[in-house]
């Protein structure tokens, strides 16, 4: 096979179109296979560095699955990532009529003003809500299924 008709492969700065599925012991967390494919740029922080390492060198058209050990994909759970947020603060920055229930995931604007991050509600009291800002797959074994559609 000559270089002219070889499929492009993923490098550290590639821009990708792909389908991917991330699942843990409780099932899928993200699955784009039934939807439109994702587009992302390697090295931009959209995927964890461990996931990006598995993509490097894959050719366009590849469909494969990786099994990552607990903690490999999204690190260990960090107890400091659990934070109480007062309901007054939530009302000030969010919808004042919002109801907060254990298990709900709430998006917060990032302190830098770019993007957002999610917190899963662990506990609710009369005046505060305990959020867990760890990735839902932190310290979990992860199945990472990928279908590479395009590499630029």
How would you describe what is shown here?
- The protein has 152 residues and is mainly β.
- It has helices spanning 49-55, 87-93; strands at 15-24, 27-31, 38-41, 63-68, 82-86, 105-109, 116-124, 128-132, 142-151.
- β1 and β2 (27-31) form a beta hairpin.
- The radius of gyration is 19 Å and the shape is elongated.
- The mean pLDDT is 90.
Low-confidence stretches: none
Question: How many strands appear in the DSSP assignment?
Answer: 9
Order of helices and strands: EEEHEEHEEEE
Average per-residue pLDDT, rounded, comes to 90
Measured distance between first and last alpha carbons:
20 Å
Major sheet summary line: 5 strands, antiparallel
Beta-strand content bin: 35-45%
Shape: elongated
Give me the number of helical elements: 2
What class would the helix/strand composition place it in? mainly beta
Q: Mind telling me the C-alpha Rg? A: 19 Å
The proportion of residues forming helix, as a percent range, comes to under 10%
């Amino acid at each position: 096979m000559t270089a002219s008709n070889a499929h492009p492969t993923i490098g550290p700065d590639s821009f990708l179109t792909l389908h991917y599925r991330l699942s843990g012991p409780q099932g899928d967390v993200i699955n784009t296979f039934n939807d439109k494919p994702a587009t992302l740029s390697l090295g931009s922080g959209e995927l964890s560095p461990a996931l990006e390492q598995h993509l490097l060198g894959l050719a366009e058209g590849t469909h494969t699955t990786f099994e990552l050990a607990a903690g490999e994909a999204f690190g260990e759970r960090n107890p400091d990532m659990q934070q109480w947020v007062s309901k007054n603060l939530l009302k000030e920055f969010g919808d004042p009529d919002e109801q907060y229930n254990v298990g709900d995931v709430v998006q917060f604007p990032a302190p830098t003003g770019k993007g957002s991050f999610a917190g899963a509600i662990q506990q609710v009291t009369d005046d505060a809500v305990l959020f867990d800002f760890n990735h839902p797959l932190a310290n979990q074994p992860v199945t990472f299924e990928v279908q590479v559609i395009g590499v630029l």
